[in-house]
Amino acid sequence: MFDEQWQFAVEVERKYNQYRKKVMVRYDLSAAEVDVLLFLANNSQFDLAVDIVRVRKMQKSHVSLAVNKLCEKGYIQKETDAADRKKVHLKLEESASEIIRFGQDCQRAFGESLFSGISREDREEFLRLCELIRRNVTEK
Questions:
Q1: Of 6, 21, 69, 109, which alpha carbon lies 20 to 30 A from 85's?
Q2: With contact defined as beta carbons under 8 Å apart, do 61 and 22 qualify?
Q3: Phi, psi angle pair for 139, to nearest 5°
Q4: β-bridge mates for residue 91, sequence order
Q5: How far apart are CA 58 and CA 54, in angstroms?
Q6: Residue 39's closest CA among 105, 103, 116, 117?
């Protein structure tokens, strides 16, 4: 049973990578750059590099490199926190809006492809079970 679950996770990630690749190719971005942009756009409450590392489970070095490249390209800017100079907030620039729109469209299409042909009831049950599994992972 565990092999099937592992294979499921691998296949979902492979499929997501196909959708992310569309953004990478269209805008000449690395996978990490796409992930950072979409994370910031989809999670406005998290705007520190350390948040991306912690929540998105990306390697610190990948986030750092992606942030620096995105700054160079003019898609994000760094703002030092007035209260804590060690904290650097990441702010999306208007120049990233087209990339973000396209990336979010790809994410939506990916989500729709996952649940294609699955009833609303089955989808809700799947999400309920995922929440139970998440709790098992985080609370035990």
A1: 69
A2: no
A3: -105, -5
A4: 77
A5: 7
A6: 103
- Joined together, the tokens standing for residue 94 give 């208007």
Q: What is the token pair recorded at 102?
A: 């396209």
The one-character DSSP state at 43 is -
pTM (whole model) above 0.70: yes
| Nearest one of 109, 106, 101, 110 to 41, comparing CA atoms | 101
The answer to whether the CB of 79 falls within 8 A of the CB of 3 is no
The residue with tokens 């620096």 is: 68
Q: Where do the domains of the chain lie, and which CATH numbers do they carry?
A: 11-139 (1.10.10.10)
Q: What digits encode the pLDDT tens for the residues 63-74?
A: 999 999 999 999
- Please name every residue paired with 81 in a beta bridge, in sequence order, or none if there are none: none
